[in-house]
Amino acid sequence: SGLGLAELLLAQGRALDAADACRRLSELLSDDETVLTRLAEACMAVPDYGRAVEAFERLVALRDDKAWRADKLHGMAKLYRDKLNDNEQAIVTLEKGIEQIPTSMQMLGDLRELLIDAGRKSELEPRLEAAKDELRRRVGADPLDADAYVDLSRAAEWSEDEYTLLATLGVLTCLERADEQERELYARRVAKTEEAGFAPRASSANAW
């Protein structure tokens, strides 16, 4: 098949020929995710990053699925950041991805690094607050959702929200999901708050 030939060419290191084959296929099969994915891979290998971005854009539009779109937008943002040295477009693309999945710690972390480098860290705050609100809803619905507590602790750390960070570390410790570094951090911060005459109800999902 045409796709098989393109994959063979790519495996042989003939990226330009593979990209041409995938491009021709994509004109015939414009909504085929495998063809568009191979087109993006081949263009990355050429390298032809402009066409790779176009392939990612077509992949984003292919499905009305938030997780799918977020994943492709994240890949496109990495392309802008790592290959095209266009951090501003990477920021814009990450923001679009976060609109799809507001609690994506991977995308929030990448956006945080770019905004810090650009001297625009404050722009992250509304997105961290939105992520914390959604994660609080999750743990409210399921107080044993350890993954949500992990993400909430990360968002709290990045937003310098000491109260929420301490509470989530306490819950993770109770759930035996905190690693050694997190347990030590929790112990130090509990001691600090107790010295100040305040001890949070860290074992409760309603601690915040």
Characterization of this structure:
With 208 residues, the chain is an all-alpha fold. It is 73% helix and 0% strand. It has eleven helices and no strands. The protein is elongated and about 70 Å long. The protein starts with a helix and ends in a 13-residue tail after the last helix. Residues 201-206 have low confidence and may be disordered.
Radius of gyration: 22 Å
Number of H/I helices: 11
Ends: how far apart?
A: 58 Å
Tell me which oligomeric state these chains represent. single chain
Count of distinct strands: 0
Share in β-strands: under 5%
| Arithmetic mean pLDDT | 89
Give helix % range.
over 70%
Give the low-confidence spans: 201-206
SSE order: HHHHHHHHHHH
Helix vs. strand class: mainly alpha
Describe the global form: elongated
**How does the major sheet shape up?**
none
Walk me through the topology.
Elements: H1 2-11, H2 15-28, H3 33-45, H4 49-60, H5 66-82, H6 87-100, H7 105-117, H8 125-141, H9 146-158, H10 162-174, H11 180-195
Helix pairs in contact: 1-2, 1-3, 2-3, 3-4, 4-5, 5-6, 6-7, 8-9, 9-10, 10-11
